[in-house]
What does this fold into?
Amino acid sequence: MPDPFTSIGEPGWHANALANLKAYDVPLPTPEAPEAIKTTENRLAVTFPASYTKFTTELGPLDLDGFALLAVSEVVNVGDLWCKDSFSGEDRARLSTMFRILETGGDPIVFDASSGKFCEIDHDSAAFTNWVDTFDDLILLAFLSLPVGYYGWPDPDGSLYELVSKREHELFRTRLL
It folds into this structure.
């Protein structure tokens, strides 16, 4: 199963992303206005990665069944996360440099402005997990889940799930801190 794109902005990435979304009947989002990104960056005193800005202004916030990219107006700092007291002092301080950009139905996925990377905040273990280096990789992981998620099709023998899991593992394995 080929990846729909490697990086946001490469030739054909937008057409491939749209083709994947349409193939699985995912509702197409409305792109964000560049001014909305600037307004949120000013409100939060952060600069988002160029790939995030390009994705949200050309495609928009997506909901891929349990992997929902938030509208830029909904992005918030997680310094006051409800479980912040469970984190060590150093990690608790790091929360102030993190911004929730994606919901999974459980733990939030955040942009860590101090490193430029993305991770999941696991509230049960009070840890930052599943780090990826770029927004491109984060969104690619969401697209990889399409065949086996809500928008996918039955996989009675688990072979499709196995292929997707293998590719996700490869991505995380090479991208973890």
Residues 159-175 form the longest helix (17 residues). The two ends are 26 Å apart (CA to CA). The beta strands are 68-69, 76-77, 98-103, 109-112, 117-122, 127-132. The chain has a mean pLDDT of 83.
